[in-house]
Amino acid sequence: MVRVIITAIVSICLLPLPTSCRSDKDLDSETEASLERLDNALEQFGNVKSEYDRQTDSIRQRLTAVLSDEDADSRGVCEVYDALFKRYLYTNADSAILYAKKRVKHSHDTIGRAVGYYNLAKAYITKGHETDAFEALVETFPDTGNVKVKPHYYELMIFRKNMLGENPEMWFRRLRKVSVPGTRARVISEAVLSEAEGDASRGIRVIERFLQTNDSSPRFKAVAYLTKGRLQLQAGDTAKAIKSLCEASLLDLTIPTYRYRALSELSLILARTYDSGRAYEYMHFANDNINAAGIMGDIVATNGMMSEVVKIYETNQKMERRIRISLICILSAVSVLLVISVFLIMKSHARTKDAKEWLREANSQLSEKNSQLSVANAKLTSAYTRMKEIDNVKTAYLIQYMRQCAVHMDSLDKFRGKLQATARAKGLKGVEEILRKSDHTAELLEFYDNFDKTFLRLFPDFIEEFNKLLKPDCQTGLSNDGTMPNELRAFALIRLGITDSSRIAEFLRRSVSTVYNYRVKMRNNAICPREDFEKRVSEIMSTQ
After folding, report:
1. Which of 464, 524, 456 has its CA nearest to residue 492?
2. What is the pTM for the complete model shown?
3. Exposed/middle/buried for 84, CB within 10 Å: 0-12, 13-18, 19+?
């Protein structure tokens, strides 16, 4: 009887744990194969990125050689600048601006300078420098009513809307009127407007016909497959939409670009329908790279999708934890029954040597299982405490983020209204004057003040505990206006889990070297070992 009970317990332990991260719906083999290709591509992305960086270095070396060649003409130099500009446009806006400016400087004809200013305007838009982009735009298109200029002007306006995360439908309609049938501009315009007009099948046919008859660049193909996936989703064909978005994501990974919009939208579809675990991994990859690119429109759009994917994933994880806890309870109950059964059998078979030997083996197995259960319970308790703290921090900063966005949007509406009124009264010069005089220092100070208040509400003892880690003559505190100095704010970010100096510098609007100096200074002033200082800071507990 004891053997039967032990066999039952071992069988329960070896049962596959049901996972709630996957839906009961099954993907067809072709769609699953596309997702597996994408999984493999993400695993190999490091190699692709290294090769891309190697090619970029090769282009820079070619630039050095061309510049040192006294016989090289300006056209050859401009071609190299254009190549470098395209590589940095979506990955490093500052470098893209640099090479666009050099392109303008080395252009000795009107068309060459126009191309340079066009590139410069795109780079400024990507960086979010609207005033500088406007000045470059004026240099590029002094007469936007010119028939030959209109398509390029409309494409730039669409690019700007996309970077800002706004709807470019109006500009796509204008572009469709002036673009030549069969061109890339016409195809994308037709497809996007088909989606807006609710005629998904027409847009899909336009894209498929173009892809079959034209050998386009990987970047354009990625845009085409992204648009196709959206149209297929609008038509209700989720499986085909997933395959198209997989193709777009694979192309994005081969370029590579940090604008992983296709991968973000694919993650959202998978989270809602088939596989929230895979969606969570995709979204984290896309979100990290999009934040690294720093394109505000992409960041805003991705953050919205990220929150939904994380919510679905965490819900499924909670369900899985409940299943695990239920299994642990069942195993505990069975273990109790086993102890009782063993006791009864020991009394009835006290004279049987084989039974005693077998019982010793059973007791040994039971002790091992109980030890494993104790370890599992300890880990679950620790994880629950940590997750509760993380959830409090996430909730507080989500509320702050939503309020800050609302205030920012209201400010943008007022600023847009002011620009429209000025444009009607004084024209472009008036608008340019307002943009040149605009100052967002007050909004930045308000943002930091809100961050400080939210952080100190979550960690009211942070400053006191932080000072306990420092020498008495090196302790710090709030400024006279009640806000945290940047040195203290840097370590507040470290407490929140942001340890990368470049990300802290971006938040504080300081250089990376300045942030590095903050960290070195505090480590030098610590009373604990320098290498343990930041770890001790990250262990300061909240009171919520």
Report:
1. 456
2. 0.53
3. buried
